Amino acid sequence: MTSEMQEIIEGQAKMTLEKSVFYNPVQEFNRDISIACITQYQKTLNKDIHIFEGLSATGLRSIRYAKEIPNVSKITTNDLDKDAFKTIQENVVKNNVQDIITPSLNDANVAMLQNKNMFDVIDLDPYGSVIPFVDAAIQSIKNGGLLCVTCTDMTVLGGSYLETSYAKYGGTTLKGKFCHEMALRLVLHALESSATRYKRVIVPLMSCSIDFYVRVFVIVKESPKDTKLSCTKTSMVGLCSGCHYYRLQPLGVVNENRTKFSNSRCVLPSKCTFCDFPLHIGGPIYSADIHNQEFVVNLLDALKDESSAQRFKTHKRMLGMVSVISEELNQPLYYDLSQLSSTIKVSTIPVMLFNSALLNEGYKVSSTHCSKTGFKTDAPMDLIWYVLKSWALKQPNYDIKKFEEQKSSPGKNIMNFNFIYDSEVNFEKHELANPSSRIKGLTRYQMNPTKNWGPGAKPTKKLKKDE
Hints:
- Strands 5-4-3-6-7-9-8 form a seven-stranded mixed sheet, with helices on both faces. Strands 11-10-14 form a three-stranded antiparallel sheet. Strands 15-17-16 form a three-stranded antiparallel sheet.
- The chain is an alpha/beta fold.
- Helices cover about 35% and strands about 25% of the residues.
- The protein has a domain at about 335-440: N2,N2-dimethylguanosine tRNA methyltransferase, C-terminal domain (Phenylalanyl-tRNA Synthetase, Chain B, domain 1, 2-Layer Sandwich), CATH 3.30.56.70.
- It is globular.
- Helix 1 (about 30-40) crosses helix 10 and helix 10 (about 295-305) runs antiparallel to helix 12 (about 315-325).
- The chain is built from 17 helices and 17 strands.
- It is an enzyme of class 2 (transferase).
């Protein structure tokens, strides 16, 4: 092996790669979780599956799929780069999967549009945004097929460039703590918008915010009737610039008989109800469920099997993340407990006490896989602020007079707000306040896995004129 080559072993795949061919070891988790999800999806079918990988680079993902996912009849492994195509061919033979994998040298969009309604699973894992490939993928996938997509352009999806976000994804971002979930919902909105143009809809199975990217798994199904419901699953988001309160504005509502639709009434005020600061508007986003609970629970059961621990190198992290996702409320977006506490200048309330206070009032609360300090709840915002205000006033060193010199601030306005609750907050520990994944000590949130960790450098090799 020359100095220009490298040997890689991942899962059951053994690869020989030129160093110029793009490979990112940090993405092993992406490939592991994808194998688990596609395997779980395949269990729902009574047939072998045909997979298309549009942007293969090394062929590693496809080779792992061929060797590690049961009942795969064919994988079309595509890349536009000739060197990558050659690498794919060589490693397919090296791994003895040439009876399953067909290497393809083509533009991903062309390859998909030449094979409409052909593939059971389409996997698109680009460097950057998946959007240039979405329309072709929606047309190419079979009815009921599984679409797996990655987006790594988090500087766009995360709130820094709202004009670029709108141009790419059809929605503007907001600089809120919920930016990681909003990124997921912007991607899902783009997928849903594309699908409805072809009388199709998406059904999210699992949507993951991972490291420096987002990864979503959605079923694409033909349903001209359900495309009409798309406006009811689409919302604008109003975010308070002061206290970080947010509220959703659905674009449409459906009548009970589901035969007529109407515009929803505007529910977004120009100023925040609690702190009197202006609201900023973002979106639209996909505001329906981003996880399918049945799929997630079945996936979690599979990961709990002892064989999964031996099968996946990143099993601990997979088990932890899917466990947290299984506990998540399907409630759009989330709040950050540290940020809310900081708004009223009090030390962060212990999670167990905060959760108990909401649960004791009859509401639900959960963590989110998107953020270690985030929480989801169906409780109204006035109760959340009432709980935090009550907590602050119970602290011996808390001095509400600190706000007196301020002419106006979110914290001052909230602490002076007249909440309608008559009874005191019950902070007594609730049995559901501590989630199962935390009790079991699972790896719920991953630290940066390596130094200088990230998406890696984009390949810079240019095609020759005749390529």
